[in-house]
Amino acid sequence: MSPHAELVSRLRAAWLSGKTRPMEYRLAQLEGLGRFLDEKKQDILEATAADMRKSRPARRLCADLCEDNHPGVATQLYPQRWPQLPPVCPQPPFEVEVSELSICRSELNHTLNNLGAWMKDKHVEKNWATQLDSAFIRKDPYGVVLIIGPWNYPINLLLVPLIGAIAAGNCVVMKPSEITRNVERLVAEMLPRYLDEDCFAVVTAGVEETTRLLENKFDYIFFTGSPSVGRIVMTAAAKHLTPVTLELGGKNPCYVCDSCNVQNMARRVAWGRFFNAGQTCVAPDYVLCSAEMQEKLLPALREAITEFYGPNPQESPDFGRIVGDRQFQRVQALLHSGHTAIGGQTDAEERYIAPTVLVEVQQDDPIMQEEIFGPILPILTVASVDDAIAFINARERPLVLYVFSSRKEVVKRVLERTSSGGFCANDTIMHMTIPSLPFGGIGQSGLGRYHGRSSFETFSHQRSTLLRGAGRETLNTPRYPPYAPHRLPLLRAATETKRQTTCLLL
Ligand code: NAD
């Protein structure tokens, strides 16, 4: 018997009891989740900091710097609750606040504000035969859903899907990433105390145990992670014909047109690329621009990096580190592509890679073969917007496509001639701060969408419902055998949808 089979059947029994269906129950669980975020904020900051910990001298230096820049925060981040860990340097607390806590809170509030409206049955147009009946779409919970999260935003990418799953009335098994082990432990130990433990559970598991967990039959699987593991998850789901959402990664292009405000563009791209040391699925992965624009862009990027992180980013409390040694080795190896125009310094002990810009990068260089997921920005030159479009269309469809241009027709042309999960003009990452914009990939970058109402819909089965009266049987007679051909026109008129004609006079 698969491990966790008992857990899954316990949750299924709770779901079948119907307790997750009333709106009051869902709201109470969501409020519980909100209390977890408020009351455990400090623990979340400590755990994320501990997961990005560095060598002892660097930690001390960084903690001092943090105390200067974020008074009170760094000292609080010393591990009173995590005594087994030495003092830690935080992943920039500002970044944790913005990308983990604030996004979760915003998603939660948006859901609490709208759940009543989202849950309502959606009545639909009817044909003649059903005019006296009631036809609607009921937003039904799937049942027991599995949410598997990655390490790069371990709170956000577990809890934002969870909000949708709770809102839709499901029971949930959560599987956080084992790589960010302090967040994993925090979520496993603390989160269940804020939720109904009959219906919500956290499983801690590495690859082997997750493989066994996936042997169980879930009613929906929501996975965030790499495309290669996404395939494994989808294969396991196929065995039970379980529907999936796959939120995957890839290489997000950023086309920079000759006419744009170079300073603003450089700051917005540098922010998106170097936030969380580049470990962001929606980070701009590479820049496409003309050779002339590259000349203007390099000093502007250098200026933006210095403005953000000072002359030595290694000493900045606002610049993060690579999550683990394996990931550090992988990203460091990508520095050998092209020529280093900015940055390039590394420190293995700290897992530090400086904000780096590479030029003279070729399409077949290693850095163009995989998602970078680190603080490196390659620039490739193209002759025109059409060349950029052809370059983008010759590759896998990305999670997001960025365009910088002050010319509306250029933005429109790229939007109309390409395909990607999302699209954002003249900025990076900001599109995902709007809960009412569905978020998700296409092709290699994913399947399905979430955030706000889309999360609720993702975790809801659209159950087509027709409620008919039991009487008026004579109205049904035309459809019954023995078939009478003269009744066919009547039946057609009652059930067929007619093509609408356009009135030429209007
Ligand atoms: P990953 O695919 O290695 O791991 C994700 C999760 O899958 C983890 O919980 C892990 O334990 C589990 N897992 C790993 N191997 C498994 C296996 N063989 N069988 C079953 N489960 C397995 O991804 P990661 O390294 O944690 O995250 C980085 C990737 O995630 C990047 O590609 C990034 O672009 C992507 N990502 C996408 C989004 C998005 O919203 N589209 C967000 C964040 C990260």
Short descriptors:
single chain, 506 residues, alpha/beta, Aldehyde Dehydrogenase, Chain A, domain 1, Aldehyde Dehydrogenase, Chain A, domain 2, 2 domains, seven-stranded mixed beta sheet, six-stranded mixed beta sheet, 17 helices, 18 strands, globular, binds nicotinamide-adenine-dinucleotide
Using the alpha-carbon principal axes, give the shape.
globular
Q: Please state the structural category.
A: alpha/beta
Q: State Rg.
A: 26 Å
The quaternary state of the protein chains shown equals single chain
Question: What CATH architecture of the largest domain do you see?
Answer: 3-Layer(aba) Sandwich
Layout of SSEs?
Elements: H1 5-16, H2 23-39, H3 41-51, H4 56-69, H5 73-77, H6 93-119, E1 122-123, E2 134-141, E3 144-148, H7 156-167, E4 171-175, H8 181-194, E5 200-202, H9 207-213, E6 220-224, H10 227-239, E7 244-247, E8 253-256, H11 262-274, E9 286-289, H12 291-309, H13 325-333, E10 339-342, E11 346-347, E12 352-353, E13 356-359, E14 376-381, H14 385-393, E15 400-404, H15 408-417, E16 422-425, E17 446-447, H16 452-458, E18 460-467, H17 488-495
Parallel strand pairs: 3-4, 3-6, 4-5, 6-7, 8-9, 8-15, 9-14, 13-14, 15-16
Antiparallel strand pairs: 1-2, 2-18, 7-17, 10-13, 11-12
Helix pairs in contact: 2-6, 3-6, 3-8, 6-7, 6-16, 7-16, 11-12
Bound molecules: nicotinamide-adenine-dinucleotide (NAD).
